């Protein structure tokens, strides 16, 4: 949030969370990483992988049946499976600060669990071998701040594309009537389109708050064809909240967040996407339960959770819209704004 | 399909599949069941449960790791968990015809595996105890036909509601460029709304073919509040195709079909929904593989599957739109057409 506490429609509106980007562009490189750092003490974490071509690290630790409850950071990275090495830089950065899963007598004896997921951007800058590494992961952790999250061609979105247009990083947040805050950061890199072919409008724009999305429309880009070789992508998401959730509740939240992808991108969750949503719940405030008949206690809790689950989908949809609006043209990949046709000053 | 082979935008356009409805309405009852019968020899089957309050039967048998590969029928039922008894009627009907999983020396020694899922409609007709039973399941199997699927207040959609409006049964189909046919039948009964509050339009109408959806708009209905007690629902789907799929491929298809729910209903997949998608793949025709570089064989197969996965989402979205359009007002539940405001002859 801003210094005066005003929400900035950014994941960092969720108290205690910080986001850092690092990227390499030029000299054949067009890739990067984005780190979401939890508050001191970590956050309850979960993941839901719905894409058919995922590249992930430390996701099994997040299974609700397994030991680790909280993690200190999540990494989104370019570079496909190679980019997962960037998580090592974040692991080292956390270890130096004594943050991680405590496994020994000394406070420094921690194992930082850094769940990570990769998106496909190999070769988009020209050099097939230019990929995020541990040093870039460390840079992103160093850069992490609670300022509004930078959007567009930054971090893990540096080399991202979406349905033939330039993709990138987007963010959004919501303050719920209950007082809970929920925010999302997305790296939008999809086989499918963010643009409704019938109207040229961003799918996500239909789910914006009043005034949130400008009335920009673009000619739909031609869908890629099989002749061009394999089309590989992946949209990555981190949802953060200050609510108290169990790991299982956080996993359900990750699931409904995927509905936000479905509304903003079409098609989605294909074999050629590795679409993955992480959730981080700091537990700074209890799940706010509405008052009502105690016989309906389970329904009252469900109502409070449903509010959060529905908000996750909507916030992810809006963040995807912001990502596409913020992206800049690079090389052969035109931005939505540069393809815009209905305004003199689209770009 | 029609007698002359013309597609009818119905699940029964998929060769060999039949659909039967049975319901009870009046004297306090407002509920029913819908059976989808596979062609002789059964269909490879899968399920994906994404709602938080499911009621199901025989879904574990569909896990790709487990023994049974093909099933002969799937049942959608009202009556919440009580309604699952209706599957017994379909099991008996199939046993009498020697259809099922062969377990003995005699051809008659079969165990029919009938996966089923229930939606919540208890008390909507006035009598809390009026629920589908085995006799009603048998009636639906007897009634099954390859004629276009009846829509609206029929079968498992008889007591369905959606976001305060009357829900019901809907269907849609698509013939893919590859020649494969895919169809869906849905029983729409959601906590969330099928109507965009900003425009009064059906969410699904934006995904229709030219001319498929009339330009009807309605005042959004007030969302239900927690004061009314628990809100329980569930949208149920069967997707059928004539393509050859493995159980695992069919399960992935069930997953992307859920994206169709996300686009037509908002919010969706809540704790108060038991949203469940079944897939039946008859295997009457091979998965159509495009030609291309043999080095990309896995990508070519992925492309063929992606076409099917994307079509499943779109077909489910359209079927949900058809369900809401076809529903008739009952008691306190107004239909979308009766709430329509922008046409003189809305209803």
Describe the protein in words:
2 copies of one chain form a homodimer. Chain A is α+β, with helices and mostly antiparallel strands. Chain A contains 5 helices and 15 strands. In chain A, strand 7 (101-102) and strand 8 form a beta hairpin. In chain A, helix 1 crosses helix 2 and helix 3 crosses helix 4. The model of chain A has no long low-confidence stretch (mean pLDDT 94). Chain A binds chain B through residues 50, 52, 191-192, 196, 198, 206, 226-227, 229-230, 252, 255-256, 258-259, 262-263, 266-272, 290, 292-293, 296, 299-300, 302-303, 305-306, 309-310, 313, and chain B through 50, 52, 191-192, 196, 198, 206, 226-227, 229-230, 252, 255-256, 258-259, 262-263, 266-272, 290, 292-293, 296, 299-300, 302-303, 305-306, 309-310, 313-314.
Q: Summary?
A:
Two copies of one chain form a homodimer. The first copy, chain A, is 21% helix and 23% strand. Chain A has five helices and 15 strands.
Radius of gyration of chain A, taken over Cα atoms and rounded to an integer in Å: 19 Å
Contiguous helical run count of chain A:
5
How helical, in percent, are the residues of chain A?
10-25%
Largest interface: A-B, 38 and 39 residues
Low-pLDDT residue spans of chain A:
none
Descriptive tags:
6-stranded mixed β-sheet, 5 helices, homodimer, alpha+beta, globular
What layout of secondary structure does this protein have?
The structure is a homodimer.
Chain A: E1 18-26, E2 29-37, E3 43-49, E4 56-57, E5 70-71, E6 73-77, H1 86-96, E7 101-102, E8 110-111, E9 116-118, H2 134-143, E10 161-162, E11 165-166, E12 168-175, E13 181-188, E14 236-243, H3 247-264, E15 276-285, H4 297-326, H5 336-339
Parallel strand pairs in A: 6-9, 14-15
Antiparallel strand pairs in A: 1-2, 2-6, 3-5, 3-15, 4-9, 7-8, 10-11, 12-13, 13-14
Helix pairs in contact in A: 1-2, 3-4
